[in-house]
TrEMBL record:
Pfam families given in the database record: SIR2
Superkingdom assignment: Bacteria
SUPFAM superfamilies: DHS-like NAD/FAD-binding domain (SSF52467)
Organismal lineage: Bacteria, Pseudomonadati, Spirochaetota, Spirochaetia, Spirochaetales
InterPro entries for the chain: DHS-like_NAD/FAD-binding_dom (IPR029035), NAD-dep_sirtuin_deacylases (IPR050134), Sirtuin (IPR003000), Sirtuin_cat_small_dom_sf (IPR026591), Ssirtuin_cat_dom (IPR026590)
Residues bound to Zn(2+): 135, 138, 159, 161
Entry annotated with the keyword Zinc: yes
Active-site residues per Swiss-Prot or TrEMBL entry: 127 (proton acceptor)
Organism from which the protein derives: Sediminispirochaeta smaragdinae (strain DSM 11293 / JCM 15392 / SEBR 4228)
Cofactor(s) needed by this chain: Zn(2+)
Protein name: protein acetyllysine N-acetyltransferase
Length: 253
């Protein structure tokens, strides 16, 4: 864990003076809730091959591999969904930022639904979530409650037709939801880009955010450096909950 660091006063001033903020979040916002991220040391991709007996780490979210062997994804899903996960201080900070009318768009790459659980009203889940699912054979749509029984036991949920019900989590090799793709193509006007807790390695969300970064004021808060730090007006390397606390005290009070 990195040491808490005081935020740059100019970063706080920018945050305070900006409305219509585009917020983009990644796995780093949920690690203090107990969900490991993907690419940090000890993250999912460093343990997945051994833990789920995979040929390569990303296979757990690869649609071609899922068609051959869906079991590892459902094992992971049960672990994720059974864990008593609660939103973090940073999720709550974003709820208050939204309530103050300062968020124009909130895009998350996370499938954990913690933004919604915290109380954020308008969230675009660009990598989907478990809220709904679809039968891979007949295409029938399902709500979470329809397939949560087997899901929570780590078992494969099946449709009456015999097909596998796949939660609407976006795998590598699948299209992203229309709610995100329309943003991607429209690039709506926003006044500030605030990127929180992502390595910015996965497309197309990375290029969506980075297209804004040199054109408008931008802030990146992440524990570790990313290859794109130089594009941002302000970069803070630190813990997101600490960032949230300082931002609360200085921006929302
Ligand atoms: P990554 O694991 O790639 O990056 C998470 C970033 O969060 C890392 O750079 C960490 O330094 C940072 N981080 C972790 N904990 C933090 C904390 N407490 N405070 C501040 N920073 C922290 O995760 P994502 O960028 O979200 O896609 O990964 C993007 C996508 O890759 C995921 O949505 C997932 C994955 O494959 C799919 O599953 C489709």
């Amino acid at each position: 864990m990195s040491q808490n660091k005081t935020l740059n006063p100019d970063l706080l001033k920018l945050l305070k003076e900006s409305g219509n903020i585009l917020v983009v979040t990644g796995a780093g916002i949920s690690t203090s809730a107990g969900i490991i991220d993907f690419r940090s040391p000890g993250g999912l991709y460093s343990v997945a091959v051994e833990r789920y007996n995979l040929p390569y780490p990303e296979a757990i979210f690869d649609i071609a591999y899922f068609h051959k062997n869906p079991a590892p994804f459902f094992r992971l899903s049960a672990e994720l969904l059974l864990a008593d996960i609660k939103p973090t201080p940073c999720h709550h900070f974003l709820v208050d930022l939204e309530a103050k009318g300062k968020i124009g768009i909130l895009v998350t790459q996370n499938i954990d639904m913690l933004h919604e659980k915290a109380g954020s009203k308008h969230v675009i889940e660009c990598h989907g979530s478990y809220r709904t699912g679809r039968c891979l054979s007949c295409g029938k749509r399902f709500e979470y409650k329809d397939f949560s029984g087997p899901l929570l036991k780590g078992e494969i949920p099946y449709c009456k037709c015999g097909g596998i019900i796949k939660p609407d989590v976006v795998f590598f090799g699948e299209s992203l939801p229309e709610s995100f793709m329309s943003l991607f193509y429209r690039r709506p006007k926003v006044d500030l880009l605030l990127v929180l807790g992502t390595s910015l390695t996965v497309q197309p969300v990375s290029s969506f955010a980075l297209d804004y970064a040199p054109r408008i004021p931008s802030i990146l808060v992440n524990r570790d450096p990313t290859p794109y730090d130089g594009r941002f007006s302000y970069v803070h390397h630190g813990e997101l909950d600490d960032f949230a606390q300082q931002a609360w005290d200085n921006v929302l009070r």
